[in-house]
Amino acid sequence: MRNWPLPELSITTPRLELRHPSLDDLDELADRAAEGVHEAGFMPFMVPWSDGEPAERARSVLQYQFRTWATFTPDDWSLELAVVHEGQVVGVQGMIGKDFPVTREVETGSWLGRRFQGRGIGTEMRRAVLHLAFAGLGAHHAVTTAFEDNHASLAVTKKLGYREDGISLHARKGEPVITRRFRMPREDWTESPDIKIHRLDRCLPLFGLPMSGVSEA
After folding, report:
1. pLDDT confidence tier of residue 8, bands split at 50, 70 and 90
2. Is the pLDDT of residue 42 over 90?
3. What is the pLDDT of residue 65?
4. Beta-carbon neighbour count of residue 58 at 10 Å?
5. How many angstroms separate the Cα of 36 from the Cα of each of 32, 93, 116, 135, 154?
6. 215 occurs within a structural domain
7. pLDDT digits (tens, 9 = 90+) for 130-176
8. Given pLDDT bands bounded at 50, 70 and 90, which one contains residue 52?
9. Domain N-acetyltransferase: where (predicted)?
């Protein structure tokens, strides 16, 4: 699209492609949500969108993705990337920036279809989006949060070398729950030569950044 270049953006790793989702990708992503993303009786998300019936979960995913497209501005953006493994959409890796040209801080969040969990995909897709943040957008900090009982997310965060950044209290299903915050300054990030960013340059103004003028594959 001449006036909206985000669909051109992708990041590749040895096993994954993270890309701005097409309508077909969104349909697949909705299928993953309908299949389930966590066990019953557990809620890893602040907004309990995954508690509904399968068809409700599927619609919720589609509506949320469309909202992020409609509200994307340089001062307040949410980039949601479909994660593709062996030709199949398996989840989503998100990254949020508010006043990014000033703060140079991003926040990441993700979910993965339950039947694709436990394969290291969650770690690899987080590494990919951190590469986009630091190498592509020039971020100074990346932050993330997780409920204290979300052991899978906490394990990925610790593996990648974030620093503890405090706690917050939230209400979850009528009960207080602790969320743990983590921060990665740019100097703690380790660049991964096996991760590649494709066709970012035309997208940079959408993030409030100038185009680099570098030709990209």
Report:
1. very high
2. no
3. 94
4. 20
5. 6, 16, 11, 33, 20
6. no
7. 999 999 999 999 999 988 888 888 899 999 999 999 999 988 878 88
8. confident
9. 16-187
pLDDT band at residue 205, thresholds of 50, 70 and 90?
Answer: very high
CATH code, 69: 3.40.630.30
Is 163 domain-assigned? yes
Q: Which residue segment(s) compose the domain that 69 sits in?
A: 6-207
Structure tokens at 131: 């590469």
Residue 46 or residue 154, greater confidence: 154
Cα distances from 88 to residues 29, 33, 63, 92, in angstroms, run: 9, 14, 21, 12
Residue 27 has pLDDT above 90, yes or no: yes
Place of tokens 């990014």: 100
β-pairing verdict for 76-85 and 16-19: antiparallel
Q: What is the pTM of this model?
A: 0.92
Total domains in the fold of the chain: 1
**Paired strand residues for 170:** 177
Quick one: which H or E segment has residue 164?
A: strand 163-172
For residue 176, the number of C-alpha atoms closer than 13 Å in the C-beta half-sphere is 4
Of 137, 134, 131, 12, whose CA–CA distance to 74 is shortest? 137
Instruction: Tell the residue number behind the tokens 């890309």, with chain if given.
Output: 19
CB count in 10 Å sphere of residue 77:
19
Q: Is residue 213 part of a domain?
A: no
Listed as own residue / partner, the contacts of 73-78 with beta carbons closer than 8 Å and 24 or more positions apart are 74/100, 74/101, 74/205, 74/206, 74/207, 74/208, 75/99, 75/100, 75/101, 75/208, 77/206, 77/207
Residues paired with residue 79 on neighbouring β-strands, in sequence order? 95
